[in-house]
Reverse transcriptase zinc-binding domain-containing protein (Trifolium subterraneum), 188 residues
Amino acid sequence: MKSLLALKDGFQYRLGDGNSSFSYTNWPGIGNLANQVPYVDIHDLQMRVMDVYVDGKWKFNLLYTTIPENVMDHLKLLHVCLNCQVVDRNTWKGNLNGLYTAKDGYSWHNRSTFTDNATNAITWNWVWHIPAPEKIKFFIWTALHNALPTKTMFSHRGLFQINLCPRCNIEEETTLHCLRNCEFIKCF
């Protein structure tokens, strides 16, 4: 169920012709406006976005429903460009054309699963842009991916039985231990 919710978050509502319900569609991205007000006046039940956004300006005075100031401020900040050639619809955020593919959904799911506990996804692409020899960039990239040939990595793959550091014989030989924590390395 969690993966379906994460996939649902990959879609966003995009206005086209503005024919969507003003109060009962999540077109502004903050939920249905009907949930932001105490009640929707009966006169406004059939109002569409295009009825309230006229000639590039919001006409809130056409509404009988009282909209809170913070919601009006949010709506005023939105970039609205109605196009009568395109219908309002949900589109996929994962690519520029807005079309969903299974590959995009899989990538989105893996990204959202990876970043559940983080605010931003960690990317190491910056390593390839630093002014250093390729072998140094490769070493840094390998270390950042925890893929240096350490005894712990070989033990995990079933190649070694003992994963102690050969220099200090105290702790496991991990990437962080080799580069920072080993007493032998601290001398340098």
The first strand starts at residue 11 and ends at 14. Strands lie at 11-14, 53-54, 57-58, 89-92. Residues 102-114 form the longest helix (13 residues).
